[in-house]
Amino acid sequence: MDNSQNASYQAGQVKGQTQEKASNMMDKASNTAQSAKESCQEAGQQVKAKAQGAADAVKDAVGAKK
């Protein structure tokens, strides 16, 4: 293999490794975003449940709950 073939081969290797690293980084970013979304949804459900509990407590206190 002459120098130009070797350089071309090396460039191809580097390109492939770079693409793989970029793909892995995108996967990690996607997973992080999904995890954040799920955390926000869970927090929202907890807030909703607490608000409903507070509303029920007020209804009980004023005798409006049937």
What does the model show?
There is one protein chain. The model has no long low-confidence stretch (mean pLDDT 93). By secondary structure, the chain is an all-alpha fold. It contains one helix and no strands.
Question: Judging from the principal axes of the Cα atoms, what is the shape?
Answer: rod-shaped
Radius of gyration computed on alpha carbons: 28 Å
**Please, what is the average pLDDT?**
93
- What percent of residues are in strands? under 5%
Structural class: mainly alpha
Looking at this protein, list some descriptive labels:
66 residues; mainly alpha; 0% strand
Write the layout of secondary structure elements.
Blueprint lengths: L2 H60 L4
Structure, briefly:
With 66 residues, the chain is mainly alpha-helical. It has one helix at 3-62. It is rod-shaped, with a radius of gyration of 28 Å.
